[in-house]
UniProtKB/TrEMBL annotation:
Oxidoreductase recorded as keyword: yes
Organism expressing this protein natively: Zavarzinia aquatilis
Annotated GO CC locations: cytoplasm
Membership in a protein family: Belongs to the short-chain dehydrogenases/reductases (SDR) family.
SUPFAM superfamilies: NAD(P)-binding Rossmann-fold domains (SSF51735)
Gene3D superfamilies for this protein: NAD(P)-binding Rossmann-like Domain
Protein name: Beta-ketoacyl-ACP reductase
Length: 240
């Protein structure tokens, strides 16, 4: 039986590539998104992957959305916590709203998405959870205290939940991308981008497909001995 995989923020950017990679690897994929119906409809038409709209910052919406996926597609075997936002600003100018939005979307979403599925995974004796961090969570980035905190917190969550569930056939891991050529990075001003590329030893931005292949590997049976780990995919920019 094909395994069921849920990818948050699975309709655009890195998530889009992850959804497609998992489908190609034989999973039944459900791609969650927040509100960009146009992008989701285009993604669905192009890939044939089912889309589910809800806000991962809401526990109630995650419970409801995950229950709907289980009713329609079957028990969830794989969760990829990929949805993320930035609301950049130096701390001395950051609003509480900027802080809270990023912590709710990029960190609290991990509880919201994992808590409703973890008991089922434990009962069935199999599960794969892959959380998408960032090089800026590993090294810290000025102007991103909210994002760096969320993306570093996610690594601690991963290590704790990995230990709790290792004996139940469940692995929990992190992929920490460097700068990847997506809309999020396209929003970075050109001079800043050139400076960033200058700091990447490989000499280019990463590709979403390169992150997707890491995720697909961690989701596979072959990765059963890897848990609590962080795979850095950053072109050598930061060696954690
Ligand atoms: P994009 O902005 O291209 O796509 C974000 C996706 O997440 C969209 O599908 C969006 O839905 C969804 N999303 C955003 N907020 C929510 C929410 N509250 N609930 C549900 N879905 C939501 O992001 P990227 O592909 O660039 O980034 C993906 C992940 O990778 C993020 O966690 C990011 O922090 C991380 N990352 C990205 C890097 C990069 O260089 N791009 C580098 C390092 C890490 P909708 O389409 O409806 O808006």
């Amino acid at each position: 039986m094909a395994r069921v995989a849920v990818v948050t923020g699975g309709t655009r950017g890195i998530g889009h590539a992850i959804s497609v990679a998992l489908k190609e690897a034989g999973y039944i994929v459900a791609a969650n998104y927040a509100g960009n119906d146009e992008a989701a409809a285009k993604f669905k038409a192009e890939t044939g992957i089912a889309v589910y709209k809800w806000n991962v910052a809401s526990f109630a919406e995650c419970q409801e959305g995950l229950a709907r996926i289980e009713a329609e597609l079957g028990p969830i075997d794989v969760v990829v916590n990929n949805a993320g936002i930035t609301r950049d600003g130096v701390l001395h100018k950051m609003s509480l709203e900027q802080w809270t939005q990023v912590i709710d979307t990029d960190l609290n979403s991990l509880f919201n998405m994992t808590r409703p599925v973890i008991e089922g995974m434990r009962a069935r004796g199999f599960g794969r959870i892959v959380n998408i961090s960032s090089v800026n969570g590993q090294k810290g980035q000025m102007g991103q205290s909210n994002y760096s905190a969320a993306k570093a917190g996610l690594i601690g969550f991963t290590k704790a939940v990995a230990q709790e569930n290792a004996s139940k056939g469940i692995t929990v891991n992190v992929v920490a991308p460097g700068y990847i050529n997506t809309e999020m990075v396209a929003a970075v001003p050109e001079p800043v981008l050139q400076k960033i590329i200058g700091q990447i030893p490989v000499g280019r931005l990463g590709k979403a497909e390169e992150i997707a292949r890491c995720v697909a590997f961690l989701a596979s049976d072959d990765a059963g001995f890897i848990t609590g780990a962080t795979i850095s995919a950053n072109g050598g920019q930061y060696l954690a």
